Amino acid sequence: MFIPARPLTTIAALLTLAQPALAGQGADVWPSPAAMNCLTCHSTGARAGSGELPSLAGLPAATILERLLGFRDGERDATIMRRITRAYTPAELERIAGEMAALLP
Amino acid sequence: MSRLSRRNWLGLGAGLLGVAAGRGLRASGPLPERVVIVGGGFAGATVARYLGRLAPWLRLTLVEATPHYTACPMSNAVIGGIRDAASLRSDYTGLGRAAGLRRIRARASRIDHERARLHLADGSDLPFDRLVIAPGVRMLENSPTGYDAAAMRALPHGWEAGPQTLALRASLASLADGAVVGISVPPRPFRCPPGPYERASLMAAWLHRHRRRCKLIILDSNPDFSKQALFMQAWQRLYPGLIEWRPIDQDGAVRRVDAATQTAWTELDAHRFDLLNVIPGQKAAALAADNDLTDATGWCPVTGGDFRSTRHARVHVLGDASLAGAMPKSASAANSQAKNCALAIAAETAGMPPPDFSLHNTCYSLADRDYAISVNMIYRIDAQGQASPVAGAGGVSGIDWSADRRRREADYASAWFASIMADSFG
Questions:
Q1: Minimum distance, in Å, between the CA of residue B51 and any CA atom of chain A
Q2: Contact A44 B2 (CB under 8 A)
Q3: How confident is the model at residue A73 (pLDDT cuts 50, 70, 90)?
Q4: Is A21 an 8 Å CB contact of chain B?
Q5: Do B415 and A86 touch (CB under 8 A)?
Q6: B340 touches B307 (CB < 8 A)
Q7: Do A55 and B8 form a contact (C-beta atoms < 8 A)?
Q8: Whole-prediction pTM
Q9: In A19, A30, A75, B95, which residue has its Cα 20 to 30 A from B228's Cα atom?
Q10: Cα separation of the two ends of chain A
């Protein structure tokens, strides 16, 4: 059985794997609900006035993770993101960052 | 749709279709499964859109009576004269582009659970393997007494956005200086917990600019409210003394109203207003209540995460009509519930384990055009199967935040609205 070293680094890649590779992967072949929730604000880069909800399209997973951890630790300025990221462990944020990078390449 | 990702999503769908075909899915039943979705609000549109991408082997039908949707979020800004009504609207053409979605413009009238058919008002019916309903709330008549169907026409509640929103806007704009406005808030739970207080705020902001000597009284059937300290701080800063809030323990609960004279009676008092806005008591919509999907609370019990009805296993209930654990009845909650439900249906029909559910809500409220506050929370499914807040996460904007941060939140509120409309309706 193929077990990716970093599951979900690229969901798209996983999805194109041959069928036997998916055995035992379970729901991991789908983006997680947590990552899906990010898309509500961060898929389109919607603008209003001087404010913007940044699109995460094009960002590598490492950059997204760095920002998420910065929000969680309070090192990066935030209005709502600190309150959101504190719901997740660093490992969960790493997974979310990987999924976002795959969903919005 | 924007640069996202029509291509990416379609690629995702195609990939998953390959998965499904390769695995010889669902030994227990035939493919493709017929999924009928009722209600084209935030929850219904989102579940249709995401199912179309996550599970393209499903046959999707969306039943919605109106040709376009008018969003409730930001409708208070229209009443307050700081947003154009057209910006609340979305038609369903974006959804129509989703793979394999059939849209039927009709009203659902009855659910035949035994024969698994949805009956439509035009006499036809739709067979389903799975039914996802997101019918919203119904406004209760005579809650308070006297606020019946005729009174709702004469004195619009504006708790369903559309013509009533514009009527309220016109009523506000026609007030003379010195007028007194009343807002009656029903007992919880109701759609959009901070909504009545945002409405009061934006009416007050307009009156403060254009009428100076007006007053607004909130008659509340509850002892407290969402983001209370932040709202009250904003009222003090932006239009001091204009808003008076009377909670239930200070004789705030309205028992009866007379639409003709715009009078509201509490237990001890009669209040006569120049503009009375009654927000009526609410329960799950008739489609849920009349089809055995509600319990004694008047709302629809579901298991958290997949939002499957605990009363009828082939039915999922999303959005305001559901008893969604600790989640508020909001557009943001509905959008997140729909995504979790879509992933659960995709996984189940593919014969795979359920996803790791994670639910999210963020609600912005405007106190003026450049002043907003927020509340948010992440929810996980607890041992009782209900959406439960994650300890240490979520909360409200800081009480000590600067004017600049309040302005940034107002910008984010507008951007959030544009983004969730695109994410939900395409």
A1: 12
A2: yes
A3: very high
A4: no
A5: no
A6: yes
A7: no
A8: 0.91
A9: A75
A10: 27
